[in-house]
Design brief:
Layout: H1 37-47, H2 55-62, H3 68-79, H4 85-94, H5 106-122, H6 136-145, H7 165-184, H8 193-196, E1 198-201, H9 213-216, E2 218-222, E3 252-254, E4 264-266
Antiparallel strand pairs: 1-2, 3-4
Helix pairs in contact: 3-6, 5-7
Length: 294
């Protein structure tokens, strides 16, 4: 049987791929779980709601792009004493970020580029198959690691010196500035997360065939969110870019138990895999596909 709870004292139940039962639970559920960033954010939104939670507030929750992993990392990043003026200027600019991975956010684009480069700089000597994939587990690893400035993980084994945390962070910050300019131009005010964080709906079968695949695929669409945000649009730090890979909100439902006819449901990529069926792209990229633009 699955874990269950009846009328909990909190008044609500939250689950977002995280472990909802402790290690003493007698039945096997899964081999791995989400670390809990999304569940924590959902709980925070419930606890801080301005009033009774209605359908509109639930919609806002489903489309929430707040990055708790960045919330934990930013105080340290803003405390780094960069010597280079360009790095200092970029650091001050990043401090204005509201930590939301909105589609039009330039700081969200830069932060994600930085975090990817930080992972690659820190774990560059790991086997290719074991390179960081990003997401909540790696947020937690880096949150723990930055509290150990002289950890052996910071050292670059191929050099004769002994590198420490701030040196690696500085290198990653420099790498991020170069990559951001290459991807989006020199004017940071024109950057946006959606420009590099795109989503293409692929057909499970026909995307394997060149030329024909274009008739079945939809996109790319600019999108918001990221790995381990409530609006879960996963990208892989081990990949070359920042496109959504593998994980998107597969379905979202808000059920009004007082009036089931008022229930809202979203299923991505339309209702049919056949390109000639009028409902194939019915929900793209219109209002029902609201999580793209949150």
């Amino acid at each position: 049987p699955c874990p269950q709870s009846y009328n909990p004292a909190s008044g609500y139940i939250v689950t977002a791929n995280n472990a909802v039962a402790g290690s003493d639970y007698p039945y096997h559920i899964a081999d791995s779980f989400a670390f809990g960033y999304r569940a924590k954010r959902i709980s925070d939104l419930i606890e801080t709601s301005p009033g009774p939670i209605d359908i509109e507030y639930f919609q806002q929750m489903h489309g929430d792009n707040y990055n708790i992993g960045a919330e934990e990392m930013m105080p340290y990043l803003l405390s780094v004493d960069f010597e280079d003026e360009e790095l200092q200027d970029m650091q001050a600019w990043l401090a204005d970020w509201d930590l939301r991975e909105d589609m039009d956010s330039p700081q969200a684009a830069f932060y994600n580029i930085f975090f990817k480069n930080l992972l690659l700089r820190t774990f560059d000597e790991m086997p290719e198959d074991d390179m960081p994939g990003g997401g909540g587990h790696w947020y937690e690893i880096m949150r723990t690691l930055v509290s150990s400035p002289n950890s052996a993980w910071w050292d670059i084994l191929s050099t004769t010196g002994l590198e420490a945390r701030d040196e690696i962070v500085t290198m990653a910050f420099e790498d991020a500035i170069k990559e951001a300019k290459k991807l989006m131009g020199s004017d940071r005010n024109m950057w946006s997360w959606g420009e590099i964080h795109t989503l293409t709906y692929e057909h499970q079968v026909m995307s394997n065939f060149p030329l024909i695949n274009n008739a079945f695929e939809r996109g790319p669409f600019q999108t918001a969110g990221g790995a381990s945000t409530v609006n879960n649009t996963w990208w892989m730090s081990s990949s070359d870019g920042y496109i959504v890979e593998g994980v998107i909100p597969s379905e979202r439902m808000i059920a009004d138990l007082s009036n089931l006819s008022n229930t809202l449901l979203i299923h991505p990529a339309g209702q049919s895999g056949h390109p000639l069926v009028r409902r194939a792209s019915r929900r793209l990229p219109g209002k029902a596909h609201w999580w793209l633009s949150r």
